[in-house]
Specification:
102 residues; mainly alpha; 434 Repressor (Amino-terminal Domain)
C-alpha cells in the first residue's frame, strides 16, 4: 500500500511532467497561482507537498484534467473512480476506499 508521502511524491512528479509537456515554467505557474517562484520550486522538488486546494488551479493552468495530476503510476482506474480524498460516499470509510485504490 502506498503511503501519503509516496502519493504526494507521485503527484509532484505528475505536476512536473505535465507542466513540462505543456511548456509551463515554474515562474508561469507561480504567477497563475499567486505564489512566489521559490514556493513553487519547493513543491516541484517535493520539499513541500501540493495542497489539495491548489491542484485544481495547477491543472487549469497546465491545461490537463485534475485527475491526470492525481493519477498513480501503473494503476488502472475504473471510469469515474476518484482518488480516496474525493470519493467518500455514504457508508464508505477511508479504509474501504483505500483498499479499493490499492
Amino acid at each position: 500500500m502506498m503511503t501519503i508521502e509516496g502519493y504526494a511524491a507521485e503527484v509532484c512528479r505528475n505536476v512536473r511532467a505535465e507542466a513540462a509537456r505543456a511548456g509551463i515554467r515554474q515562474a508561469d505557474l507561480a504567477r497563475a497561482l499567486g505564489m512566489t517562484t521559490p514556493k513553487v520550486n519547493r513543491r516541484y522538488r517535493g520539499q513541500i507537498p501540493w495542497q489539495l486546494d491548489e491542484l485544481p488551479r495547477v491543472a487549469a493552468t497546465i491545461g490537463v484534467p485534475l485527475e491526470q495530476l492525481l493519477q498513480r503510476e501503473g494503476v488502472a482506474r475504473l471510469e469515474g473512480f476518484e482518488p480516496p480524498t474525493f470519493c467518500l460516499g455514504v457508508g464508505e470509510t477511508l479504509a474501504t476506499v483505500t483498499e479499493l485504490a490499492a
